[in-house]
Design goal:
This protein has 260 residues and is an alpha+beta fold. It contains 7 helices and 10 strands. It has a domain of 167 residues: Sulfite Oxidase, Chain A, domain 2, CATH 3.90.420. This is Molybdopterin-binding protein.
Length: 260
């Protein structure tokens, strides 16, 4: 029997691999490249024929979903991210976004309200003054960017799990989904177990000062157990839901869990 080809005529295998790897989780992508990526390797990973870029992207999306499931399974909701002394704080703490600081949302505190939606008992909107009256704690933790750099900062705010309890959120739901004021409608889902982690925080201050515009004023969600892109800034709404709504980077192939 003739050996079956995994390529369709006219397809450049090298370009196909390069295109397909864009949808692979970052860690998996590095390991896959280090191991010598090939269409045959992709086929062995899944037991499926990989004959074009469409089937490769579909397969890699499945690998990413599996990667999320494994990370969620091994996640320990009681394990804390490391904390540091004030002397370890990175100065200046870097601004990081997919746009320049001049293009960051410039939000009026007087006009801003946090919208609460989904599976909660109390759907009232919260003003910044109301949120600032909530009991707050300070953490000095490391922000780890998917691009390979990290920085240590001091963040003060209300534990998200306390706020979810206050509004009567159904903590049996799968996600808390955040919508932000960033250009292009930045949004991101957070799995409920991570949302209930004791260090996950609704952050209102940086270095004991009102959160600067560069770091997400009027509110960011600080999740020290996750990569930086899972720490949404300029938050305008949160929704407790069982529906996976995707996210800005998640829809571009990044792992949704992206944490420890």
């Amino acid at each position: 029997m003739a050996k079956r080809s995994f390529l369709i005529p006219g397809v450049d295998k090298r370009l196909l691999i390069k295109d397909s790897l864009k949808t692979m989780p970052d860690v998996t992508r590095r390991r896959f490249i280090a191991g010598g990526a090939s269409l045959g390797a992709l086929t062995l990973l899944t037991g499926c024929d990989v004959i074009d870029s469409s089937s490769a992207e579909t397969m890699l999306a499945k690998v990413s979903k599996f990667n999320d499931a494994v990370q969620a399974f091994i996640f320990n909701p009681d394990a804390l991210a490391p904390t540091f002394p004030e002397s370890a704080i990175t100065k200046p703490f870097p601004f990081n976004a997919y746009y320049d600081l001049d293009d960051a949302p410039d939000i009026s505190a007087a006009d801003w309200k946090l919208e609460v939606r989904g599976l909660v008992d109390n759907k009232k909107s919260w003003t910044l003054d109301e949120l600032h009256k909530l009991p707050q704690v300070t953490q000095i933790t490391r922000h780890i960017c998917v691009e390979g750099w990290s920085a240590i900062g001091s963040w003060t705010g209300a534990p998200l799990r306390d706020f979810l309890k206050l509004i009567g959120a159904d903590t049996r739901a799968k996600y808390v989904w955040f919508q932000c004021a960033d250009k292009d409608g930045y949004n991101s889902p957070l799995d409920m177990r991570s949302a209930l982690h004791p260090q996950t925080q609704m952050t209102f201050k940086y270095a004991n000062e009102i959160l600067p515009r560069a770091y997400g004023f009027p509110m960011k969600i600080r999740v020290p157990t996750k990569l930086g892109f899972k720490n949404p800034k300029y938050v305008v709404s949160m929704e407790v839901t069982n529906d996976y709504k995707g996210g800005y980077w998640e829809d571009q192939g990044y792992n949704s869990f992206s944490g420890s």
